Amino acid sequence: MKKGRYLVDNEGFYGEFGGAYIPEMLYPNTEELRKTYLKIIATKKFKKQYKELLKNYVGRPSPLYYAKRLSEKYNTNIYLKREDLNHTGSHKINNTIGQILLAQKLGKKRIIAETGAGQHGVATATVCALMGLECKVYMGSIDIQRQAPNVARMKMLGAEVIPATSGSKTLKDATNEAIRDWINNPEDTHYIIGSVVGPHPYPDMVARFQSIISKEIKKQLKAQTGKKNPTHVIACVGGGSNAMGAFYHFLDNKKVQLVATEAAGLGVNSGKTAASLAKGKPGVIHGSNTYLMQTDDGQIIEPYSISAGLDYPGVGPAHSYLYEEQRANYLNITDKEAVDAGFLLTKLEGIIPALESAHAVAALEKLNFKPSDVVVINISGRGDKDLDTYMKYC
Ligand SMILES: *Cc1c(COP(=O)(O)O)cnc(C)c1O
Hints:
alpha/beta; 6-stranded mixed sheet; 14 strands
């Protein structure tokens, strides 16, 4: 198999997916990034700063933990990659650290971001406080009401939270507002996108910043088992960044089965779902060609999931490609299955996963393992933020 065949090509595509379908006025902004991002992140200075911050600020490497009781239950070997233990409680900080350093190198003074549940907004506000940069976070006015604790966090961190009041007043509207801001401030502003979505080069750039996850998995597995490759890697998919990070260094090795879980909500055919691959069709959303949930005349269908972080109508273009090429296996997990998996992990291992991550744990029920298999589940975040929701199921 050709090395790197699942990575982005020189034109910014994964097969037919990806690209940069953007208004002409945005072209100078994405062009600047496209021309500079690979050069900047390859410099010694960037690498050194990125590594040091990941180590001493984020707390990396995140542990790879052998889950003994969970392994006994499924009669196999299960390891948990503990992204929940990162500063700010999820994998999102890996990307915002990378992008803030890049923004500094580009001489940007002002940072903007979009957020749905507020997790990416918090991770962005955090790195802006760290670097002393101005931060504006666009958030749907409905989400502002729903996610009050994260709004408070962003404000305490010094960010201005700007309500998006158009359309459905949720994530996609916040993204539109952020893009509008960027068009109006091309010189001094960097837009930190929170997942492997958006126009090229964002999907590739974010995947590279998250690829630290699979890099560490290899090293840690080798130290703990003598072999660096697992038989399975499992991760949940909203936009798809924690999954791309967990898959990245295994993409070329077909012996490693890649399993991704989409949020089925109340069921893929219930009309209340966020399973963009199962229910979507290719189309353009936020600058890239990818699977998205849309009506016959191309209007975006509002997604639904119990987990705010998986509640996105599209999916990163790399996942559309991995799906069509059948390199990764995409499973649908309902709200109920995720909640049950969240309680199971808590009871057996004393780890309360984010509802997003609970969707990954729920895949264990849908797969058959051999006793000799080595299964790594990416625990993308911690469940403290979801306690109210979990309690409704007690
Ligand atoms: C945002 C988020 C996700 C979903 O985003 P991806 O880009 O698909 O990783 C998953 N888990 C947690 C904890 C999150 O905060």
